[in-house]
Amino acid sequence: LLNASQGHRLEAALALAVTRGLRPGELFGLQWSDLNLAGSPPTLSVQRSLKRENNKLRLGPPKTPQSIRDLVIPDYVVTSLRAHRKRQAEERLANADLWEDFDLVFCTEVGTLVDPSNFRRALSKLTEIAAIGHWAPYELRHTAISLLADGGVALDQLADLAGHKDATTLLAHYRHK
After folding, report:
1. CB atoms closer than 10 angstroms to residue 33
2. Closest among 139, 35, 136, 137 to 80, alpha carbons compared
3. CB-based burial of residue 68 (10 Å sphere; 0-12 exposed, 13-18 middle, 19+ buried)?
4. How far from chain centre, in Å, is Cα 22?
5. Strand partners, 14
6. Taking each helix axis from N to C terminus, what angle separates 75-94 and 11-20, rounded to the nearest 10 degrees?
7. Other CB atoms within 10 A of residue 96 CB
8. With contact defined as beta carbons under 8 Å apart, do 48 and 67 qualify?
9. How far apart are CA 62 and CA 49, in angstroms?
10. In whole angstroms, how far apart are CA 5 and each of 101, 105, 125, 160?
């Protein structure tokens, strides 16, 4: 999937999703001010989430109080995010008359909130190109947690990374055999 998404405007979003396990709403609620790409280590802070209420998209608090968290960003994802910021700046210039500045890391070509339905369709096309079948957005989160667990990350650390109070929910929803 990461290979199939190279050069796609969602490349950095997918890299971040499959390495940090963000919920789709958290991913699309990120603002550039939430990222410290120059830090040692580079980090992001989950502060808000994209939500649909009364058929309108808006930013609001994350799902639970535990969902507010700081995460380390892997170096290759930092590289992808920097390239993404450059592409976004080019889009901003090309669409200056239409651009709405919400400081969003992942937005539409005119700076607005990403509709989850459009993300679902784009992800489906990329998973088809990658020949891995149809994926729903939450499968990115499941993949991240599964890969980290297989890599030896302790359950309590995984719960913190995923924004859960403890490992109980993690085991109930993300354990795959």
Report:
1. 10
2. 35
3. middle
4. 5
5. none
6. 150
7. 9
8. no
9. 5
10. 25, 17, 10, 28
Cis peptide before 24 (omega within 30 of 0): no
CB-CB contact of 163 with 174 (8 Å): no
- Provide CB contacts within 8 A for 89, sequence distance 6+: none
Mind telling me the catalytic residues?
23, 63, 141, 164, 174
**Rounded CA separation 59/28 (Å):** 9
* Residues 71-109: tens digit of each pLDDT: 999 999 999 999 999 999 999 999 999 999 999 999 999
| pTM of the complete model | 0.90
What pLDDT digit, counting tens, does each position of 158-175 carry?
888 888 877 777 777 765
Question: Which residue is associated with the tokens 């993690």?
Answer: 170
